[in-house]
Design a protein that fits this description.
Helix content: 25-40%
Number of strands: 4
Radius of gyration: 14 Å
Strand content: 5-15%
Largest sheet: 4 strands, antiparallel
CATH class: Alpha Beta
CATH topology: Muramoyl-pentapeptide Carboxypeptidase, domain 2
Order of helices and strands: HEHEHEEH
Low-confidence stretches: none
Number of domains: 1
Mean pLDDT: 87
Shape: globular
CATH architecture: 2-Layer Sandwich
Strand order of the largest sheet: 1-2-4-3
């Protein structure tokens, strides 16, 4: 994470780590760039980033260990998105920030409540990609 604090894997939801391990088998260059963050670290990031690019302190899923950011892969590649969608199909509790209103393709998270699968995951599980 750099200037705002160290990379922390401890405290990250096990479902995210299991997803990451499966993703890494398919995409070996993938690596976690951000895991658990303290409120102070989120405050630092929030102040550093352009408006709308980081969650307000106290609202980030990273602060509760329910999110990771994954780098080292080309999110613009349609083939990569197919691979990520295929791996997500094995981990129904994990959702992808690629589908946020303002896309955040490096962000993967477990919501506070049981997720409703986005249409992309349903289509992906049927072998239909866009």
């Amino acid at each position: 994470m750099g200037e705002c604090g160290p990379l922390r894997i401890e405290g990250v939801d096990r479902r995210l780590l299991d997803f990451f391990q499966d993703l890494k088998k398919e995409l070996p260059t993938a690596h976690i760039t951000s895991g658990f963050r303290t409120k102070e670290e989120q405050t630092c990031l929030y102040k550093k980033m352009p408006p709308g690019m980081a969650a307000k302190p106290g609202t980030s899923s990273h602060e509760s260990g329910r999110a990771i950011d994954i780098g080292g892969i080309d999110y613009t590649s349609k083939e990569l998105r197919k691979t990520v969608t295929k791996v997500l199909g094995k981990h129904p509790d994990v959702l992808w920030g690629y589908y946020f209103k303002v896309s955040d393709p490096v962000h993967f998270y477990v919501p506070k409540t049981s997720p409703v699968w986005p249409a992309a995951l349903i289509l992906g599980s049927l072998g239909l990609f866009f």
